[in-house]
Amino acid sequence: MKIQTDYKQNLSILTHVLGWALFGLVIFILSPLSAGVERPIAFWIKQSLNFSLLILIFYTNYFYLIPKVLFKNKIPLFLFVNLIAGMGCILLLIAFDDWTNMQELMHKAYRPDIPYKPKPRNYYWDISQLLVFFMVIGISTSVAAVQKWQIDEALRLEQNRQQIDSELNYLKAQINPHFFFNTLNNIYSLTNIDIEKSKSALLKLSRMMRYVLYETEKSNTLLSKEIDFVMDFVELMKIRLSSKVNLTISIPEKYQDAPVAPMLLLPYIENCFKHGISSQQVSNIYIGIEISNHTLILETKNSIFHSKDRTPEGKDSGIGLQNTKRRLDLLYDKKYVLQIDSENEEKTYHVLLKIDLQ
Q1: Which of 94, 123, 205, 274 is most buried by a 10 A CB count?
Q2: CA angle at 73 for the pair 71 and 79, rounded to the nearest 5°
Q3: Structural domain boundaries enclosing 93
Q4: Are 93 and 129 in contact (CB under 8 A)?
Q5: What does the alpha-carbon distance between residue 260 and residue 220 come to, in Å, rounded to a whole number?
Q6: Which of 102, 129, 158 is at the close of a domain?
Q7: What is the average per-residue pLDDT within 137-159?
Q8: Least confident residue range of 113-122, 133-142, 160-169, 253-262
């Protein structure tokens, strides 16, 4: 990272040096020489002074006025200071012309056979030079603005990446404590009833733990692994379900694998079990996953119960769903559609999520 930063810094410095060298060569050396007239030494001193003033005004703006004045929303002050600086540079060049008697020297260079007669100063060249100064100010402002936008954009992307990581870590922590603790208790109870079933449950739990520990460290995992993780979760939840829960699962056996962000599906499926099960009434849960034309479709439906009818597991907040929605915004932006309907005649909580995996 340090080598890359040093390379970019050296490249930026080289770009500035080459840019100024090309600008000075064309405007201040080749352009006067193209007239085919031998200019006096004072003229070349003035050209050097002019070029130095342009560099000075460029970097004064770039390093001081733009970040400390313009970017602080002090626009009138920024314009006033640059106007005064431009006028000051022009007055300095005029004073240099008067001191060196530049008008007479240039007359002798272009018309050596004609006697010199003083004439009023032609301010056309001074106005042109002032416009050049303002052009340099505009270029320095544009360069600084573009670099600030690039830095701000890089900072925004880094903040988004850190936020995605923190939200994913929250989701990982969210399923760890209560889910694993309760599942282990259920598996322990199973050992007295069905040894083989308890072994199978332990295997599913170990696969889930391995997924949470290792796969979620990556930015993407395989869709097949995400679905296996979801299926293990559902199978373990079945151990705790009573006969009053009607669970319907629709997941294809064969589908086209694709990369997907880890743990995007679990919060919506977990929500069905946390908020869609009653200890007193019949509960209905539907979980469907479909992959069609590189589009992942998740659909869940669960009964809606009042808080007093829910099981203790259903009393948690819905922060996980909010974080998942935020992750979808950050990771997939306009490549997903999320529809949630909780006000319908069936009195069900309906989630339909479509993600373009291309």
Answers
A1: 274
A2: 90
A3: 37-158
A4: yes
A5: 5
A6: 158
A7: 86
A8: 160-169
Are 190 and 198 in contact by the 8 Å Cβ rule? The answer is: yes
Does 182 share its domain with 242? yes
CA–CA distance, 105 with 218 (Å, rounded to integer) = 74
- What domain count does the chain have? 2
If asked whether residues 68 and 128 sit together in one domain, one would say yes
CB atoms within 10 A of CB 227: 19
Q: State mean pLDDT over 244-262.
A: 89
Distance between CA atoms of 302 and 300, rounded to whole angstroms? 7
Rounded-to-integer distance, Cα 71 and Cα 144, Å: 10
The C-alpha atoms of residue 123 and residue 116 are separated, in whole angstroms, by: 19
pLDDT digits (tens, 9 = 90+) for 258-289: 999 888 888 899 888 888 888 788 889 999 99
Look at residue 9 and tell me if it is in a domain: no
Structure tokens at 137: 């100010």
Report the C-alpha gap between 302 and 276 in whole angstroms: 5
